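chain below, 141 aa
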Amino acid sequence: MLLAGLLIGSPAMAAEPSLEWAQLSPAQRSVLAPLAAEWPEYSHAKRLNLIGLAQRYPGLSATEKGRVDLRLKQWAALSKEERAKARDNFRKVQNLPPEQRAAVREKLRKVHGVQPAPAAAPKPTMAQQASPVPPASSAAP
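prediction:
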């Protein structure tokens, strides 16, 4: 009986929001519009991932927004077989050693005429983020 009580109250058993298309904000639906027809087929995790993309979208540069828009439209235009092949190819590339993966990316950039994204500035480490503590004054007032 105690076990049943623990399971009912556990966060894992809590109902997750359904994330139906109608529940998205107008801005989210606008960004994700090319995927509207397939939305009911997506898993909860996939929906969360796409909602995250839609939430980041306003902060993207015009170039990045254009790339997102184009890729969502291209993905929506693919058949189920083409999507499966694209996923399989992605997994294969992800399993390559880093040097080979970089070579594949470079080849794809050349084939598709895509300029590499500028390298992001390295994130500061925790030590760099911490403000230095001023030394304690040794002189007594």
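The longest helix spans residues 62-77. Confidence is low (pLDDT under 50) at residues 1-15.
thats it, cya
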